[in-house]
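ok new one. same drill as before - structure tokens go in, u give me an amino acid for every spot. 277 of them this time. try not to just spam alanines like last time pls lmao
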């Protein structure tokens, strides 16, 4: 079966190809653009897309295709823009650009397969276009990984915030009718907090939404952290995971017993952020 290539969708003609470059966004050793995209897709198409540390890769009037690495050989088309202006940017080179609206329906939905063997992350499109194979067109714009199962939940504050604020469907469906015993980890100190979500708390989704809203969810020790170190400390350092999950029919008293068991087991009153058993 003949491969479907990216330009089969974009349909740039031979006269246009010489004026098109591709910007491939990958982990820079410090920050993963995929994490930024899950939180704020627009930032990838501005901050990552239109900034280079060393040299000027685009000319005024040139078309720039933006790809974001999802995993080993899979890339997501996030935008296509035409460069309109050079910008003075501290410690690098910047641009202004206008998005090509005729391709809007493809942004965040087209997944291509490409094995990049070069060190350069900016390439002439005509040199690589025959290697950009379209392997999937998503029904809606990519908004992050699907729910991985209750045993595999480990979220930063920003990941949790994104799930809740963008109402990512598989996550919302998995969390909204579940009771649970959960764990919050302060990655800066190693201290732990064990909590529970019951019918009284309106299930796990609501409980975790409370943490997104204010950082402490009404818990005494966590309130002290926010007051002392600020909400930004929570956003930077807190991690959320599930110890045990139960369906909505499970008795709340049993879940509270399991919460106490985990508090004793992990010593979260002596060495963590729980103020009681």
């Amino acid at each position: 079966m003949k491969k479907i290539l990216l330009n089969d969708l974009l349909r740039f003609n031979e006269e246009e190809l010489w004026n098109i470059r591709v910007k491939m966004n990958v982990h820079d050793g410090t920050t993963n653009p995929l994490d930024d995209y899950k939180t704020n897709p627009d930032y990838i198409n501005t901050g990552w897309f239109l900034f280079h540390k060393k040299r000027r890769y685009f000319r005024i009037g040139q078309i720039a295709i933006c790809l974001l690495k999802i995993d080993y050989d899979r890339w997501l088309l996030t935008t296509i823009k035409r460069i309109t202006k050079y910008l003075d940017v501290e410690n690098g080179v910047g641009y202004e650009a206008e998005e090509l609206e005729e391709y809007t329906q493809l942004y965040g939905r087209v997944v291509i397969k490409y094995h990049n063997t070069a060190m350069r992350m900016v390439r002439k499109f005509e040199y690589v276009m025959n290697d950009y194979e379209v392997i999937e067109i998503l029904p809606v714009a990519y908004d992050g990984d699907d729910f991985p199962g209750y045993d595999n939940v480990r979220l930063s504050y920003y990941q949790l915030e994104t799930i809740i604020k963008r109402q990512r469907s598989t996550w919302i469906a998995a969390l909204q009718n579940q009771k649970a015993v959960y764990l919050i980890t302060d990655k800066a100190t190693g201290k732990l907090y064990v909590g529970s979500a019951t019918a009284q708390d309106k299930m796990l989704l609501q409980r975790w939404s409370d943490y997104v809203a204010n950082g402490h969810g009404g818990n005494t020790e966590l309130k002290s952290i926010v007051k002392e170190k600020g909400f930004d400390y929570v956003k930077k350092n807190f991690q959320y995971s599930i110890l045990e999950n139960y369906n909505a029919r499970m008795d709340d008293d049993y879940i509270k017993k399991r919460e106490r068991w985990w508090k004793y087991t992990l010593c979260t009153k002596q060495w963590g952020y729980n103020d009681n058993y």
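The first strand starts at residue 20 and ends at 25. and btw Residues 6-137 form a domain with the Archaeosine Trna-guanine Transglycosylase; Chain: A, domain 4 fold (CATH 2.30.130.30).
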